Amino acid sequence: MNCSFYIVILLISVFSSGPVFRTPAGFVFQDGSTKIRVINATDHSFTNVSLFSMNFDNLLPNDTLAYKELRYDSLRDDPLIYCVIDGKNLARYLTIPDKAARRFTYVIDSVTNGILHVSSYSEISE
User: Does pTM surpass 0.85?
Assistant: First the structure.
């Protein structure tokens, strides 16, 4: 058999064996000890809100969503916020919270020319 076939089988068995925490290759896994939320500081309504491939409720103007446990695997999930505004799909890459952060908040500050402007802050546990 072809050597590349065995390499593919090896890679599949390694990467499907469970969650990855941190590896030299830079893979990241968040196990749910961090909770994230979204604040809408704009006058826009957002639908189909998703962060790190996790679905959230629709976001009304000047609204705050409840915290959710972050379950993030860099091999499977996107470090993005997705949402729809006025029928237009928008997305933005996000900062991945540090594992020490108990609560992490993303704030949609504005939307300019179809670009989301998102800031973030964390509450670090002691």
Answer: no
Cβ atoms of 120 and 52 within 8 Å: the answer is no
Question: Low-confidence residues of the chain, pLDDT below 50?
Answer: 10, 13-29
User: Does the residue 25 lie in any domain?
Assistant: no
In a domain, 90, yes or no: yes
Number of domain units in the chain: 1
In a domain, 91, yes or no: yes
DSSP-assigned letters across all residues of 52-71: TTEE---B-TT-BPPPEEEE
Model pLDDT, residue 91: 95
**Domain coverage including residue 39:** 30-124
Per-residue confidence (pLDDT) for residue 7, from 0 to 100: 58
Q: What distance in Å separates the CA atoms of residue 116 and residue 64, rounded to the nearest whole number? A: 16
